[in-house]
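Continuing the batch. This is chain 6 of the set; chains 1 through 5 are on the previous pages. Same settings as before, nothing changed between runs. Recording input and output for traceability.
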Amino acid sequence: MSIDIDLAELATMTGLETMEAIAAGALPPPTIAVLLGMSVVDIAEGRATFELSPDERMLNPLGTVHGGIAATILDSCLGCAVHTTLAPGEGYTTAQLNLHYLRPMFPGMGPVRATGTVIHRGRKQATAEGKLVGPDGKVIAHGTTTCLILEA
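Output for chain 6:
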């Protein structure tokens, strides 16, 4: 898939517009999403939901899916929830990520879904909380993030 990105046009878009364009396929997804097979399920102001299906490429030595996969999808949905609040030209970076793992993931268990929601959006930082749930609706992990807002 090759989509040309007009960086000048991208700089005029809000974070929500950018995320909606990615969800619609008008902009390419981040390469980490392609690598893991992560897709956007829902985007709204202050909220982002992603999905992926754990597979054998993601195993740790114990035969369960590596905890870094849960961390990655949660970090992604939490950060993108913050991204939806950005004005044109603003950026963000994760300053802190806190996770609580409740149960393992296994290859072939079906898609897992992570939803992040902004709790606070200030001028210089934002916080968000999120949950990762399995196909059975049980919480696999949950966490919070603090993101620094970067001015243009």
